[in-house]
TrEMBL record:
Molecular-function GO term, any one: ATP binding
Designated name of the protein: Phosphonate ABC transporter ATP-binding protein
SMART domains from the UniProt entry: AAA
Keyword ATP-binding: yes
CDD domains for the chain: ABC_PhnC_transporter
Amino acid sequence: MSDIVLQTNSLGMTFPDGTRALNNINLTIRKGELVSIIGPSGAGKSTFMRSINLLNKPTEGTIMFEGEEVSKAKGKKLRLIRRQIGMVFQHFNLIKRSPTYQNVLHGRLGYMSSFKGGLGRFSEEDTRQALNILRRVGLEEQAFKRADELSGGQQQRVGIARAIAQSPSLLLADEPIASLDPSSSENVMNYLKTVCEEDGLTSIVNLHQVDFAKKFANRIIGIKAGEVIFDGSPKELTDGIINYLYYNK
């Protein structure tokens, strides 16, 4: 069985206003990799990530996910694909008035009928799993607190727990530490890496902070003006490449 989880071939994205956001992206992501995507604001990092789970439909090229071409998926097929791709958001996207464990349970909605999901009828097993995942990210004691009673770093760990509850094969995290202080950022990235390693989970993480990318990722992809200009290990990411990525016009 192939260990390739995701493959993009000549992937391109042109928005209706003519803006060219992605150009000829050819990448292969393998099982168990923690890949960090870096680059300046407006480089196309978030557009690329949103194209993977088809929140943005690419205008060119193909996306292979677990051996299946998915770039034109619709309806039920699209829902099944998204169920296999967990997402961690920059601004957490939690239901602030709901208890922490309930937010984690929302990761199971893709496995339920819309009727049961709408009523919040989660099984005892799902609830046990949610509490177990919260323990894994160090939030067992916060399980019954409202989400808005938690710190920013804790809320982001709830976001990770919710994504893990989906039982995904690929985890996407779009600037997950952008709004956090350095200590909370370190905490969140430690938990993210640990959970991914324990579950053999493939993850792609957009980061502005190059130092965090070098510390936590085992592979770094640099994107500038919609194109991949670096793909290698943290040790291969030189100061010269960083300067070209962020400062050369």
